[in-house]
Amino acid sequence: MSAMALQSVPVSFTFVNQTASSVVAKPDEEDLAIIKSHAMRAVHRQRRASPRKPVRPPKLAAPLATDWEDFALCKFFDDFVFPKENASGNAFRYLDFLPSIYKRDARQSHLTDAVLAVALVHFANQRRVDGLNLRARRKYARSLNLVNRSLANPVEKGSDEVLATLCLLAKYEIISGDETGLWRSHERGQAALINHRGKAQLQTEAGLGLFRLVWIRQQLNCIAQSAAPPERPTFNWDAAFPSPHLKHLMLLVSRLVLGRSQARELFADGYAAVAEEKTMEQLQWSHEVHSINEDMLSFRQSLPLELHHWSISSCEVIHEAGRVREAAEYFPVHLNLFHNLHHASIWHIYTYCQIYLLQSLIQHTFPLNDCHHDAQQQVQEASLTFTTTVLPDMCLHLRLQQAIDDVCASVPFLLGWSDDARFLNTAGRGRGIACHYIIWVLAAALSIREVPVPKAQWEWIRARLIEVGFLHGIRHALVFA
User: Which InterPro entries match (predicted)?
Assistant: First the structure.
């Protein structure tokens, strides 16, 4: 140590409430050299003891971590949940109730697992990412197991979360293209739950949205299958559908469900409806379906101007349309345009019901096959202008063909095809919902045998279902294609 005077600094140490004082000296240069030498020798010993690693060139940048779950969730809510600010009183609003339920149930549960399962499988169907389908399947299995436990609990059984989970599980099965028909059993479970939940479910926004989603889908499935609902719930129509236009349309849907199911029973033995002798039940049925037909035409004419859609010549929007038709291929003569996907959903349900109603009228009443030339001219004029033109009741076949043409005319807007004027790809969010509506109406069009749909148009419809199945990731569409 150096002989120079040391400057003392008092430092206190506390040990069990006892204080001591000590004097610490600053190390001089010789001491620092010794300390540094000992430290360097220790480092060398440690290097000799550990195996040497190969020297790698430094990376320019670390790879970014990709969380596919976050991507999938964002895309799911963008594709399947309508923003509330864009929904009017005349909209069905689809899954707009889901964010509020998902937020209050943010912990890991059967609902959050179901949302993630649907999001992952939809994302995986559109993008080739290894392992996403397996992750989706695991989330689906976990959600299914957890919701079955909740269904066994009388307190949890009637909750919004349980019903929303069943809706999402059915959606997973539809998107994944499940061929076992398990989605039908889940939809029957949903129907039983809305009956179990009673009128109280219409008192909350989430409960109202869930009821509409389940009830409307159940009615549309029954119309296609000519089946009666397993159990008809008792509810307040004004509370369920506050808009008078939606209420009117849903009442027509409900009447058509009964009419189609009754026809299946009345004419199950192949009895010809055009025979001279009819039973009283068949006469009553014929009167009812004609009444539904008149009321549907009246509904269409009574809608306010803002609820009407408009049409434009396809050649003005898509320049290739004329070339396609010149090559003897099909392309819609006109394209239907809507304010948004909310607005489009009303017309798709109307057209869907119209197709099956006209099919029943042709099958079981007295259709006139020889429509006059002026009526055929009206069909052509309606195709080139506005689709709100109402054809004479006598031309059932031509009206059915026009309904199928209207379905085709709506598809480009729903799928957001590109066009120079940007009329078709401005619908905004909810493209996945639009694809669900497309599947319903295109499947209805393909099921018709009462009018000779041109082969080119038939193939065009099948191609659109394949487009929905692969490009938009809803594999259930391939079942109908």
Answer: DHMBA_Reg_Transcription_Factor, Fun_TF
